[in-house]
Amino acid sequence: MQRCWNDGFFGKGTLSRSEPTFRARVSGQERSSEAVTSERRRKRREFKELRAQHQRFETEERKRELNEEEKAQWEELKVKMAEANTESKVVGDKSSPVVLEDELEELEKLEFLQLDVVEAFFLVYALEVAEVRVDPESEPLGDLELMKRMAFLGAPEATDDEFISILRALLQKYVVYHHYRSLGWCVRDGIKFGCEYLLYKRGPPFHHAEFGILVTAADERRSWEETMAVARVVGGVKKTLVFAYVEQPSIEQLGEIWETKEHPRVKLIRLLQSFKVCEMVYRRWSPSRTRE
Q1: Exactly one of 125, 177, 180, 200 is catalytic; which is it?
Q2: For a disulfide at 11, which of 113, 149, 185, 271, Cβ 3.0-4.6 Å?
Q3: Would you call 208 a catalytic residue per the annotation?
C-alpha cells in the first residue's frame, strides 16, 4: 500500500485524506499531514483572535486615552502576537496515546488503498506491476477482461448495445489519464474542483497542482454557464484550466474493433489508438495584466 503511494502517488488511504497515514496517526509515532494541518489551523485561529483584540485596542485608543491597565494589557498582547507570528515550527503533540503492538497490528488491517479504475488499469496494463483477481484463488484477469469488468462496474445490468457506449466513456477517461502519466505528470482525481484530473509536477506532498483537466469529447457541446463555473472554481485556487478534447470513434467503429477475433492485447491497443487527445489552455483575459 505504501509503495503505491511512494512510487507514483497512486490511490488514497480509505481512512486518510490521501496518503495512507492512519497507522501513524493512531500509533502517534510520527506527525502525519492531517495532524500538522490541524495544528496549523489551530494556531492560525488563535492568531486571528489575538489580532482582533489588538484591533479593538487600536479602535479604543482613537476614541479615548487608555488607562495604565489597558496599556499594559495591550503591550502584553503585542508580545503574544509577535511570538505567534514568528513561530514557524509545529511542536509535536506529547499527549499522543500509546498503542500496544498487538492493537497496532489490528489497526493496520483497517485501512487499505483505494484505486480509481483508471489508476488500477494503468498499473496493470501500462506499468505491469499489479494484478487484479476476482478472488485470491483465481487467475489474474487479462487486460481486456479487466477493462470489460471495469466498464460494467457503473452499470452492471447494461445490455450489449449499452456496453459499447459505457466502454467508450471509460476509454475516453483512461486515454487522457494515460496521456498525462506518459508525459511525466502526477495525475490525481479532480472532482474536488469540478474537473476530471489535477496535474502535479512532482506530487501532492511537494507542490499544489498546477493544472485542472476537464475531459470533453470533441463533438460534445458544453454550455457557457458550465464552462465558466468550472473555470471560476479552478481559477479561484490558482490553477490553470486545460480542456482535454478527445477525438473518439463512433459506437459502430468501436463495436467492430471489440468484436474482432484478434489477440486481446492487440485488440486493446487498437481500441486505445482509435482515440486522440487535443489540449486547449483556458485563461481569463485581464486588461490590467495583458497591456501591450
Answers
A1: 200
A2: 113
A3: yes
